[in-house]
Amino acid sequence: MLEWSTIGLFIVAASILVIIPGPNTVYIITRSMQQGFAAGIVSCLGVLVGTLLNVTAAALGISALVLSSILAFNIVKFTGSAYIIYFGIKTLLAKENAATGTDPITESRLKDIFHHGIAVNVLNPKALFIAAFLPQFIVVGQEASITTQIFFLGAILAVVGGLSDMTYALLAGRAGKWLQGNALPQVGQRYLAGVVYVGLGAATALTGKNHK
Question: What pTM was estimated for this model as a whole?
Answer without folding.
Answer: 0.71
